[in-house]
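Long-time lurker, first post.

We've been arguing in lab meeting about whether nicotinamide-adenine-dinucleotide would sit comfortably in this protein at all. Half the group thinks yes, half thinks no, and nobody has a model to point at. So I'm putting the question to the forum: if I give you the sequence and the SMILES, can you give me back a predicted structure of the complex? Inputs are below. Any interpretation is welcome too.
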Amino acid sequence: MRVGVIGTGYVGLVVGACLAETGNDVICGDVDAQKIAALKEGEIPIYEPGLEPLVERNIAVGRLRFTTDIAEVTKESDVIFIAVGTPADEDGSADLRHVLDVAAVIGDHMNGEKVVVTKSTVPVGTADLVRQTIEARTEHPVHVCSNPEFLKEGAAVEDFMRPDRVVLGVDSPRARQLLGELHEPFVRTGNPIIFMDIASAELTKYVANAMLATRISLMNEVARMCELTGADVSLVRHGVGSDHRIGPTFLFPGPGYGGSCFPKDIKALIRTGQERGYDFKILRAVEEVNEAQKRLFLEKVEKHFGPDLKGRTIAVWGLAFKPGTDDMRDSPSIVLIEGLLARGAVVQAHDPVAVPTARRLFGDRVAYFERDYDALKGADALVVMTDWLEYRRPNFQRIKDLLRTPVVFDARNLWEASRMRELKFVYYPLGREAVT
Ligand SMILES: NC(=O)c1ccc[n+]([C@@H]2O[C@H](COP(=O)([O-])OP(=O)(O)OC[C@H]3O[C@@H](n4cnc5c(N)ncnc54)[C@H](O)[C@@H]3O)[C@@H](O)[C@H]2O)c1
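Top reply:
Settle the argument with this. Predicted structure of the protein with nicotinamide-adenine-dinucleotide, as C-alpha cells:
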C-alpha cells in the first residue's frame, strides 16, 4: 500500500518505519528540514530502542523515504496518517493548529480518493474538522478516520509491532477495509482490531491515558498516607496489585507523571468536558495531586537542608520523565531542578541519554556528567528521579565516598532502607520509612 505519514516525531517515525517493515511504500513528511536531512542520512533524531536499524533497513531497500514536501506526501499516498504534535494550548485544550494546517495542505493537493487518518491524540470532533477542512478544498473523495496510538516511548517499536489492540474509528467501508489490511500483520496472534465510530475512537485514547494517570495519582496519594501512618507503600502496592481486578501495573508511586502525553491529555479531556458543560472532577483531582507530587522531593530536600540552598550542591540522577527515552517534556526533574536552582543550589546532573535534551532546557545553569558517579563528586546529596536500570544496583560505598555528606533522596524507591541504614546513609524514599 502507498502510505504517507505527516509528522516524523516519536510517533510518526515509528509508524512510518513499522509500516515500511511490513512491506508498504512509505513516505514521511515533516516541516522540520533539519530533522528530515538527518533522517535521509539514516540518523535518528530521538532515542528509541530498536528504531535505528528499522529505519536504516527500510531506507536501504527503498520502502521508506523522507521529505519536507507535504504536497508530495499527499500526492504519492492512498492512506495518509497525520502524526503531528497536539500540545496543550493556554486554556488546556489540545492545540489543533498543526493538525488543521496539515489537513489544509492535504486538501490543496488531493489527486484522487484518499483515506486520511488522525493518529495524533485529538479531542472528540477533530476528525470532522479535518474532513471539513479537506472537503472545502477538493472534489476528490476523502475518508477521514481516527486511529489513536497507544505506543509507549522507550518500547515504541515493540508496542507498535505487537499492540494489545488496534483501535480504528471509521465511518466508511473503504476506510475499514484499507486500515484493516494495513494493521493485519500486527495482530496475527489474535489481539483485536476494534472497529468503532470515530467519536468513540477519539475518546478511547484520552480515557486510556486518564485511567493510567489516575492510578498513578492515587498511588502517589497512598504513598503520602504511608509516610503518615508508618505503612510501606511497596507492600501495599504488592498486596493491592495481586488482586486480578486491579492488576500490578501502573501502581508504582514516584515523583509525578510527566512526558508528552499524560499531562496534556488530562488537561485536554478536562477542557473537552468544560466545553460541553461537564466538570470532570476526578481528573481535576488527578492533575492537582500530580502537580503537588512533582514538588514533593524539592520539599524533602528543603526539609532536610532548610529553604536556603546557597552553597549546597545537589546531584540528580535521571532527567528523562521515565527510563528508555530522552524525552523530558513535563518531566518532574524539571520542577526539581528549577526549584533547586531558584534556592541557590548548584545542580550536577546525569542521565544515560537525556543530557542533550537537558542542555536545550537548562543551558549551562546545570553541570552535566557523562558518567553517573562523576555527578556525585563533592555533592551534599543525591536525588534519584528516573528509574533507569543502571541506577538499580550501584556501588553504594563509592556513592558514599564521593558525596560530601551521605544523603540520598530516592523518588523511585530503587533501594532498600535496611541496606542504606547498614551503610549509614541518610535515606529518604517515598511512602516508606526514611533512614535519618
Ligand atoms: N510520544 C508519545 O509517546 C505518544 C504516544 C501516543 C500518541 N501520541 C500523540 O501523537 C502525536 C505526536 O506526538 P509526538 O510525540 O510524535 O510529537 P513530536 O513533537 O515528537 O513530533 C511531531 C512532529 O510533527 C512535526 N510537525 C509539526 N507541524 C507540522 C506540519 N504542519 N507539517 C508537518 N510536520 C509537522 C514536527 O516538526 C515534529 O517533528 C501527539 O498528538 C501525541 O499526543 C504521542
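For your lab meeting: The chain has a mean pLDDT of 97. The chain has 16 helices and 14 strands. Whichever side wins, do check it experimentally.
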